[in-house]
């Protein structure tokens, strides 16, 4: 696989993954096509040497792993972690708003979204819908309207002359998306609209009544290559579906000799404290079922986690927001993220291993440290390290516009990280 093919497959993945549920579905399809066997958490597992498996939780978190041909106690496990969620607008439980003949939906901001770019975009709606069928059984289905069905119009500058100087965004009053023109007396209840969409997308489904949903608005503009020389890629949800795709592709393309795990957690953007988040027990319980609770400490002692989450590239218009010696450039390689206050879990040994692999493959890498007078973000790295006791590296592709509705990264960096992670999975020893 070369860089161009890698980016085209990435674009296909991003376009078809508007929500964590869709991202997990896409990953599961690719894993099954590669021969991975699906496991059910409720069933008893009988894992064999040299086999490849995957399991999901809540349809929004996925773990794929290969058992390898040897003993994990002696070989350790090569772990890669990422997250499936991105900041967005989520539809409220009772969302219908009727004002001046317009039908709008109330939304809640999920995660630390940059709100201004959500205005004047062609928005669609996707997610999971829970319903009862004709026999009274509870069922779930994924929906994706795909086409533009909503927008958040800006207020004209004539009505807010200070818009370019001091406009703020009130998430309660300013961003309910406009769905249609419909007086309240003529409007179809939102859940009935969802039932209709379910029946259209899943003709075999016997949808009697929609009971609940978890739905997100998203920008319908597809991923693209940007720049006079095609230097950049632009898309929604690069943070952090780019890392999910990199980890998935590395696992698919690596040989199956060594024990390895890819975990893509939901809820990173809101703290990871959930059954399927990185602070939950999903990964540790999987390891117990694989190697046994008694042996897990020995396995962890020989293992390593690479937490892959995008990094802040130095913005040419705001270069002073970076430490002068640590301003990652797009297309100059993945970024090793360091924070001595443990917002990132990198230490000198894990960083050295990555640098060694990069040098062996003649590939570039960079380092990021936040300015000492600024706060630092975090990742699933410290959470996983703290839960499992596993040595961890935090790394990511540098990008612009993090948490915007549309983000930008270098066209080369994702492929570079993929090559190094593929080699990492194939290492005979992590010592």
TrEMBL record:
Coiled-coil parts of chain: none
Enzyme's top EC category: hydrolase
Keyword line: Aminopeptidase, Hydrolase, Metal-binding, Metalloprotease, Protease, Zinc
Documented EC number(s): 3.4.11.-
Gene3D superfamilies referenced in this protein's UniProt entry, alphabetically: Aminopeptidase i, Domain 2 (2.30.250.10), Zn peptidases (3.40.630.10)
Gene Ontology MF terms: aminopeptidase activity; metallopeptidase activity; zinc ion binding
GO cellular component, one term: cytoplasm
Annotated Pfam families: Peptidase_M18
SUPFAM superfamilies associated with the record: Aminopeptidase/glucanase lid domain (SSF101821), Zn-dependent exopeptidases (SSF53187)
Entry similarity comment: Belongs to the peptidase M18 family.
Name of the protein in its database record: M18 family aminopeptidase
